[in-house]
Automatic annotation (TrEMBL), chain A:
GO terms for cellular component: nucleus. Residues 33-94 form the SKP1 component POZ domain. Keywords: Elongation factor, Nucleus, Protein biosynthesis. This is Elongin-C. It comes from Chrysochromulina tobinii.
From TrEMBL, chain B:
Residues 12-90 form the Ubiquitin-like domain. CDD domains: Ubl_ubiquitin_like (cd17039). It comes from Chrysochromulina tobinii. The keyword RNA-binding does not apply. This is Transcription elongation factor b polypeptide 2-like protein.
Amino acid sequence: MMMGEMSQGQREMQSLVRAANATARAQGSMEPVTLVANDGTEIIIDRRAAMVSGTIKSMLAGPAEYSESLQNTIKFPEISPQVLEKVVQYFYYKMRYTNHPGHLPEFKIEPELALELLMAANYLDT
Amino acid sequence: MSAVPATAESSEYVRVKRKRQTIFLYANMPIDTVHDLRARANLVTKVPTSEMRFYLDESGEVLLDENKTLKEQKIENDMVLYMVYRIQGSDDWETVMIGDKKAEGEA
C-alpha cells in the first residue's frame, strides 16, 4: 500500500463516522413546509424561508381555522411551478441578504416570468 | 424560534429534485458532504439515507463523491441536484426523473 492511501476498511469507517456526524448536524435544521403549484408540483422549504411571505406567514401562524397551519401544506392553484420556484428562490435570497452589509448580488428574473412573478409576489405579500 | 441564525453561511442551499418534488436543503458548502444532504433529505422525506443517491447532472452520469465536501465538487448556492431512490428489494437505482418524464425520453 502506498503512503497516504487508505484501505477499504478505513475508508468505510471514515464514511460511517461522516454519516453519524451528518445525522447529528441535521437534527432540527429545518422545519419543512410544502408549497403546491397549479400542476401538483411540490416545493418543500424551510418554515423560516416561507415566513418571508406575509400571506404564508399568516396562513401558518394563524388560528386553526386555516387548515394550512395544521398540515404545513399550502396549495397555490393559480401559480405555475416555474413561478413558485422562483418565488421561493427569492425567499431564500431575501432571508440571506436582509441586513447584509455591502454589495448585493443580482436576483435574476427571466423576462418571460416577470409578469406572472409580479402577480404572485403581490398575492403572497412578498 | 430557530436556534440557527440566518447568516450568509447557514442560509446557502441546494435544490434537490426528484419527479414532481423540489426540496430546498440548507448546505454549508465548505463543510458538508453528501452524507449531510442525505441526513437532511431524510428528515423531510423519511426515506432511509441508504436508499437515496444524488447526481450532479440530469442525465444521471455524475454521482456526488462520498468523500469530498460540496465545495470541493464545485457545488454552489442555489444549484440543482438530482435525487434517485433505490428500487425496492433490488440493488438497482431509479433513473433520474424530473416532472413526469424520464431523462432519456422514454414514455
